[in-house]
Sequence to fold (402 residues):
Amino acid sequence: MTEKTLHLAVALDGLGWHPAAWRLSHADATAPLTARYWNALAGEAEHGALDLLTIEDSLDLQSSRPDGPDDRVDEVRGRLDAVQIAARIAPLTRHIGLVPTTSTTHTEPFHVSTAVATLDHVSGGRAGWRPRVSARRAEAGHFGRREIPALDLARLDEPEAVQTVGDLFAEAGDAVEVVRRLWDSWQDDAAIRDVPTGRFVDRERLHYIDFDGRWFSVKGPSIVPRSPQGQPVVAALAHSSLPYAFAARHADVVFVTPTDVGHAAAIVAEVRAAEETNGRAGPPLRVLADLVVLLDETPTLARDRRTRLDALHGDEFTSDAAIFAGTPGQLADLLAEWHRAGVDGFRLRPAVLPDDLTATTRALVPALRDRGLFRAGYPGGMLRDLLGLPRPASRYAVAATA
Fold:
């Protein structure tokens, strides 16, 4: 047995992460527009006792181009709102964490704070949130309130691009700070509900957050009482030093994208250095490595399926995360190796849904348990408990007693 079991999550996106997934999926092409489909995916993920699921979202249509729509008609286009999907899943699940994605660039933090706090209430303490930066002009064009310069991915080191990306992450940092303050603005015991005295709320335990920054000016308090976790879990996807610093300052979980075991160890070291540089207080980030997975009974079958998907797509599929095609046992061995390199767990991106999710829960999870790497079931508690994160006290309650 290992000293520490790993965390396991799944990233849900449409009919899978491969652009041609809809051509081979056992689900109907219209399934992602139905509640039944998302309920089934969440139920399958919970069947495997996964820690959490994330739901991808964006404010522009899927595209093969870095920015703006393309002319392809052979790939899935269109999606449902991630927060509303999570809210639909919540009453039909009992244990798994639910982490929708929203944009910090075009979404008001007050709206996000109320939506995610509501999700935490209705799920019994299983909510999380993945804030993402919207750096595409196409997304900005849907709102008409700001201009975002076109970014050339090959020239991100030029001063204008550095300034643009830096501003977007600084804005995202302020957005998360506002959201967290709003989550704290009701102390745990602010709602008295005392019928004999007629006092429903103790106004002294509701707090203005009085945030005044470059991008937001928010008075507070929230309209949603403090949620079961106090602070729902915040997760960030990070590929480089700037988002590592963002995660170190603002997140509880960071999703990273190593290419091999050595790279995994190097990323963990960089994340820990970012925590120290940014003066992180509290528990260290939970570092989960992302992998796109195609699983089958034999390595040959898995490779053949990947080849077929690429042929249907018309090109070799590439991703920001490493792509694994093989058997569940081979993947279990790879996860064990990367886990020993220092990552706390993994967020798997199924290439085809529901197929690769089912292979994960029915074959990979047992293989990990056989290796002593994954728990037998849910131990109970909230998402923070699953991740080994303490429930924080409201900053305003702490200040009042200081």
